[in-house]
Design goal:
Blueprint (H helix, E strand, L loop, with lengths): L1 H37 L6 H41 L1
């Protein structure tokens, strides 16, 4: 019985200790965030333009590829349906 009470007290103490440590943990987290944000470098205008160009070109290439694949599969299905309908 005494062991159960000791375990219950220990659990409440750790919960209280965690609550008391919250401001310190929060300020430590915010210091780490500030430190990491200082390492972040914004891209230049030229980098943004070149990346945007690559993305747009890639979108058009994939669109053309999927259009081609869709047409080939669609015509194949139409052919199979025409042959099976005869």
């Amino acid at each position: 019985m005494a062991k159960t009470v000791a375990v219950a007290e220990q659990q409440t103490n750790t919960g209280m200790q965690q609550l008391k440590a919250l401001p310190e943990r929060t300020s430590s987290f915010l210091r780490d965030v500030r430190s990491e944000m200082r390492k972040v470098a914004a891209p230049s205008r030229e980098e943004v333009q070149s990346t945007t160009t690559v993305v747009i070109a890639t979108v058009f290439i994939f669109a053309a590829y999927f259009w081609l694949v869709d047409n080939v599969i669609g015509r194949g299905v139409e052919y199979v349906l025409r042959v099976s309908a005869k």
